[in-house]
């Protein structure tokens, strides 16, 4: 009943269950858990949904197979959070031929537009914001020689590409030295392993570590602590992170992480709006941007201007966490 589901006579309106196939990246981070929980709670049986959930365990081949499985099942809608941003046009063409609308969340698909809507955040903006904050922070602290180690997210993920590009734009503009940039695959173990190797190669040469998600930052903290390297507000190394999950914000409040650039994981309510509009025979927005916030420990800067827009920074207090 996929054609009917996409048409005016909505299955949900007629009281039928709406079947959704969701191919999720994996379970690599706290952020990912929040993203999954958001979908499970919105697309519940009580709310009239039958959610076919597949945790693709960071494996692109598994993710493509999951989407083809949803086509076989003839679900009403398919949700994809794409592990990597390319290699999608063939399978999205198969979804289109099967008459099953696809909604993309969080990361982007960059080699096909055969989907109804994308709901997510602007990763390059997050990278630019991190760079702008670091510029203000190092200026305020009188740090002129900025030597950065970057622990990237999963290779090929649009979140990694955007955060890397945005931060590098500011680093290049300010003549900072990015000593190295390697993937920690968005995991705590990955962050620790990369930081341990960085310490072997660059100890004493770096004063900033940028982790592209909180779980990598937790791993990097363990590695620096084990090596007797101080970090955070009172440390020798400035620690910057992304996601701003609860545990990350607790470390911002304690001063272990200097700044954390949030990307909102709660996409499901926005996806439900897209589905409801499709059920009503309306055309949803192609891109639905979610809010982002910049969290800091110290108030050296109140507003960051990124892409021509001013955005306030939030000093983390226990009410915020
Ligand atoms: C970003 C999301 C990233 C998070 C990581 O929107 O795709 O994937 O930053 C997660 O925590 O692994």
Descriptive tags:
six-stranded parallel sheet, alpha/beta, eight-stranded mixed sheet, binds beta-D-galactofuranose, disordered N terminus, 321 residues, 22% strand, 14 strands
What does the model show?
- With 321 residues, the chain is α/β, with parallel strands linked by helices.
- Helices cover 39% and strands 22% of the residues.
- The chain contains ten helices and 14 strands.
- The strands form two sheets. Strands 7-6-8-9-10-12-14-13 form an eight-stranded mixed sheet, sandwiched between helices. The chain has a six-stranded parallel sheet with strand order 2-1-3-4-5-11, with helices on both faces.
- Helix 5 packs parallel to helix 6.
- The N terminus is likely disordered.
Give a brief description.
With 321 residues, the protein is α/β, with parallel strands linked by helices. It has helices at residues 2-6, 30-42, 60-73, 89-97, 123-141, 158-173, 188-202, 214-226, 246-254, 268-279, and strands spanning 18-24, 49-55, 77-80, 102-105, 117-120, 147-152, 177-183, 208-211, 238-243, 259-262, 287-289, 294-296, 303-306, 309-315.
Gap between N and C termini, in Å? 44 Å
Contiguous uncertain segments of 5+ residues: 1-12
- State mean pLDDT (0 to 100 scale): 94
- What's the story with the biggest beta sheet? 8 strands, mixed
Main sheet: strand order: 7-6-8-9-10-12-14-13
Percent of residues in beta strands? 15-25%
| Beta strands, count | 14
The tally of helices reads 10
Helix content: 25-40%
Bound molecules: beta-D-galactofuranose
